[in-house]
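User: Can you predict the 3D structure for this chain?
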Amino acid sequence: MISSNLFARLEESIKNRKDTFLLTITDYPDEKVIGAKALLWPDGDFCTEASLLPLDVRDLLAVHCNKLVTKKRSGTVRFMWKDRLVECFAEYFPSPLHLIVAGAGHVCEPVAEMGRMLGFFVTVIDDRKEFANIERFPNANEVVCQSYLDYFRHIDISEKTYILLLTRGHKYDVLSLNELLKRECQAGYIGMIGSRRRISGVFEELQQDFPDESFENLYTPVGLDIGAETPAEIAVSIMAEILKVKNQKSGDSLSSQIKRFAKMGFHEGAGKWTKCSL
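Assistant: Here is the predicted structure, written as structure tokens:
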């Protein structure tokens, strides 16, 4: 059983969006150590409450778990220490994908709720106190009241970051995108809501500072074309597009592949069409 201290460290790592491995000793020369647990991070940091675990064994654990850390997967490692077998199971706890919703308007509310349901770490950011508060977004992981410029200038960005710009005006989109496009590491997804006129104005301003930028990872107008009108419907459209990008799928209706086989007669294509999966 994991101790309260290790559990708190694990919880803190997940909150801070850090990949973490929970190690459990499953075979060891001293039976008292079997079942002992430790935490290992990709940067080599190691934490354990097993006082009976020698430092050289800890170092060997980190070295032998490196393959699992690199591949980002759980697994068992075995190695010899003083001619005795040491076995450990490393359980991978991936950092959650980070969904940042800039602009705490009506559409943001269902987006934040759906984002949590889908397992994202959800941050809501707005520069207005009356909008950026936990009462309006009780399911968000964090609600930040700060200028968009300052927030996007300092926030860590990676391929696991998904950003939605739902701000109240195109000047805020331009400020945000100017900071995001300067980053060496790009976000996995950037979506921007807006009319054709608003989008056109944003691109015109951006192209002055980024004339060679292709804007390939900028999705605007945001969402899939499902005829969404209400805030909840728009949220479904947006989150569906994010899942499409995350999972690298087409976004086509699943029934379209079935219908192709239906034209041949299901008895002819049965071996193929039944392989379709969600």
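The mean pLDDT is 89. The longest helix spans residues 231-247.
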